[in-house]
């Protein structure tokens, strides 16, 4: 049996590949793929391990790009940034900021690699801003035989639109060129508001702010809103002590303790959830964009997220909360709601439509599958598409009708990976053999 072991950040996805390879550059990566191809092995790539599902698992060759983490070029005038695929979003954000550049949008976690985040359709919040993969201007794929293929909108438009959200099913993304924007500062207001008021004013809140989202706990009449807008004011970050109090003590350690208490005493969950929102208070800061976008997330959870057309947002939130409050479910964690612009990647969950993302979570060692399955049925009723890096129960048969460009992605996959070297059980389930 292989002595190699890989597990995701949450520890709930584990595999024992024949080998874990850590190439330090393109030549080493090509050699790894060539050897695996000659052995007829399945190859998967691990980024930071921040996916909640089994997308990475293999008993063949597992590649981690942690050593391919360099910024290769930054052109501050055009805003084009070239980097290796293993660099984390946080490290890349800091490097771009030093050159006066930034991502237009980011999710609330920045430990993912740029390749892993884009391959799964990772997104942030902002109805005028598409997901992260829309910023990619060209993508270098290293194919199963070790050859490299650079794709962009001019050289190979079909492969370009497929590779932006690929689930790792086309080849190894080894480098990317992305379009950054001039660095900017965000004024952040995190506060609480009545759920009914937020849902009644949802269009105004979404359209009236650069970035808007909220967390809603089952059993609570309040939600925690996040409102971020660009500002010309100078950064005024929280003091180190205030930052630790908010981002670590409250958001992580205190919430972790409350979740553990809810797991031990499920009958207390409704009261605990109301306390979480009532006591969360308000926090205001002005800081560099990437510091506002991302915060530490240390509470061990599992997650499912669905993308639905924006117009269904309020009704869907009401249905999910009503479901989560049923006595058969114990849910000590909130749902998260965000909005993004459409894009044109073939497998983007936000493809061709303005989108509301609704994420549901469950605390570690608590039953999650019955709850997630029930929520998924609600999402299917709203033409929902799953986030590719999180849990869901869909298969290619029922997913294909949800994506207008499904067959075009399949044609690119047939062309670039005809032997299915990059297809594990997850990819086969959601994309077909």
Description of the structure:
The chain is 31% helix and 25% strand. The protein contains 14 helices and 20 strands. Strand 1 and strand 2 form a beta hairpin. Helix 4 (157-163) packs across helix 13 (406-416) and helix 10 runs antiparallel to helix 11 (369-381). The longest helix is centred in the middle third of the chain and has 25 residues, at 240-264. The protein is globular and about 60 Å long. The model has no long low-confidence stretch (mean pLDDT 96).
Largest sheet: 8 strands, antiparallel
pLDDT under 50 segments (min length 5)?
none
The averaged pLDDT comes out at: 96
Strand segment tally: 20
**Per DSSP, what share of the residues sits in E-state strands of 2 or more residues?**
15-25%
């Amino acid at each position: 049996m292989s002595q190699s072991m890989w597990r995701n950040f949450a520890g709930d996805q584990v595999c024992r590949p024949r080998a874990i390879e850590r190439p330090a550059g393109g030549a080493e990566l090509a050699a790894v793929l060539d050897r695996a191809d000659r052995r007829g092995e399945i190859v998967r790539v691990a980024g930071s391990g921040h996916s909640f599902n089994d997308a990475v698992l293999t008993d063949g060759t597992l590649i981690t790009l942690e050593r391919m983490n360099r910024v290769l070029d930054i052109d501050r005038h055009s805003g084009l940034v070239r980097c290796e695929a293993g660099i984390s979003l946080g490290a890349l954000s800091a490097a771009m900021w030093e050159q006066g550049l930034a991502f237009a949008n980011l999710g609330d976690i920045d430990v993912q690699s740029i390749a892993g985040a884009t391959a799964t359709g990772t997104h942030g919040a902002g109805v005028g801003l598409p997901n992260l993969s829309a910023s990619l201007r060209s993508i270098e794929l290293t194919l199963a035989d070790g050859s490299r293929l650079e794709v962009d909108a001019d050289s190979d438009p079909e492969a370009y639109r497929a590779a932006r959200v690929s689930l790792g099913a086309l080849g190894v993304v080894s480098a990317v060129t992305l379009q950054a924007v001039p660095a900017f500062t965000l004024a952040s207001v995190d506060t609480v508001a009545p759920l009914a008021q937020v849902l009644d004013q949802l269009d105004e809140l979404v359209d009236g702010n650069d970035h808007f989202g909220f967390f809603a706990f089952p059993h609570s009449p309040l939600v925690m809103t996040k409102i971020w807008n660009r500002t010309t004011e100078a950064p005024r970050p929280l003091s180190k002590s205030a930052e630790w109090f908010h981002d670590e003590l409250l958001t992580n350690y205190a919430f972790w303790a409350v979740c553990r208490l809810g797991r031990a005493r499920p009958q207390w969950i409704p009261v605990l959830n109301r306390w979480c929102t009532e006591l969360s208070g308000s926090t205001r800061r002005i800081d560099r964009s990437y510091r506002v976008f991302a915060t530490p997330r240390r509470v061990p959870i599992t997650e499912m997220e669905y993308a639905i057309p924006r117009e269904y947002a309020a009704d869907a939130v009401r249905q999910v909360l009503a479901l989560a409050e049923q006595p058969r479910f114990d849910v000590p964690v909130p749902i998260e709601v965000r909005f993004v612009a459409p894009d044109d990647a073939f497998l983007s969950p936000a493809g061709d439509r303005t989108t509301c993302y609704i994420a549901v979570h469950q605390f570690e060692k608590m039953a999650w599958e019955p709850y997630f399955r029930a929520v998924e049925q609600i999402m299917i009723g709203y033409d929902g598409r799953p986030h590719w890096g999180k849990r869901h129960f869909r298969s290619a048969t029922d997913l294909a009708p949800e994506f207008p460009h499904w067959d075009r992605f399949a044609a690119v996959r047939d062309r670039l990976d005809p032997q299915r070297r990059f297809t594990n059980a997850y990819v086969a389930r959601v994309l077909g053999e």
